[in-house]
Write a structure and sequence with these properties.
Number of strands: 6
Structural class: alpha/beta
Radius of gyration: 15 Å
Strand content: 15-25%
Order of helices and strands: EHEHEHEHEHE
CATH architecture: 3-Layer(aba) Sandwich
CATH topology: Rossmann fold
Strand order of the largest sheet: 4-3-2-1-5-6
Length: about 170
Amino acid sequence: MNNNLTCAIIGQHPMRFPWGFDEEDVGCNALKLALAQKIMELRQRDVTRFAVVADNGIGLYAGECVNALRAYDPDLMLYVVTPHEEQATKWAPYLRERYFQLLADCTVMEAASLRKTPDCEYDAYRRIIDYADMVLAVYDPATARGDAVDRAMEYVKARGLPLLKLDD
């Protein structure tokens, strides 16, 4: 079996969820638990590398989960792409701390752009999708608004990669 499968994990912005940024909400906690379970299931199916965009939603949740699992599974790797170098400068302090910890703990980190550009977030998603053998998406097309995640989902389909939804 191939022990080097890679899964990119992408998801919609927190404001597209009913709870927004309220991580104490029961819905958010249920989502995080389901995400962790899916990551562990993928690990049992020989996925050893995970790739995320360092955003303040699914990318952060998934990256934190993979980094926690890496403490017990040295074969796991986490590849993180930031859209641009100063992405977290205006984030709330608690999110900035988690963001920088994610970057410090990951296996490989890179920035899609030095400065913020109109396409830097989409470029970051493209990088992790190009790196991946499959994509795990936390995404509701009914909430589409033409942002980088929506464009990334179209890119996944165009690439023909296996697409797993969180409820799969």
